[in-house]
Amino acid sequence: MQRVCFLLKVRRDRIAEYRERHAAVWPEMCAALSATGWHNYSLFLRDDGLLVGYLETPDFEAARSAMEATDVNARWQAEMAPLFETLDGARPDEAMKPLTEVFHLA
């Protein structure tokens, strides 16, 4: 399993909305994530908008590509994009750049 961690930045004025939307993620979005290989997926949000994402998957690029091909992901990303800073025209899922793991205690 590949462990993947990434950072994004939620706009400070949209943090409450981001929390609300993630308190009620669409069931079809959760099903698509599971079906495409996103396991043990968590999001952590700091009060200043720093978002830390973590997931485990056999192949991150394959999981990402499989999600990108779903209709529900396109709809979710379109709704979420305005909540983020510095996407430079990319969707939030496209802006996820995995961090390099430097230590893991098994």
From TrEMBL:
<dbReference type="InterPro" id="IPR008000">
    <property type="entry name" value="Rham/fucose_mutarotase"/>
</dbReference>
<protein>
    <submittedName>
        <fullName>L-rhamnose mutarotase</fullName>
        <ecNumber>5.1.3.32</ecNumber>
    </submittedName>
</protein>
<dbReference type="InterPro" id="IPR011008">
    <property type="entry name" value="Dimeric_a/b-barrel"/>
</dbReference>
<dbReference type="Pfam" id="PF05336">
    <property type="entry name" value="rhaM"/>
</dbReference>
<keyword id="KW-0413">Isomerase</keyword>
<dbReference type="GO" id="GO:0062192">
    <property type="term" value="F:L-rhamnose mutarotase activity"/>
</dbReference>
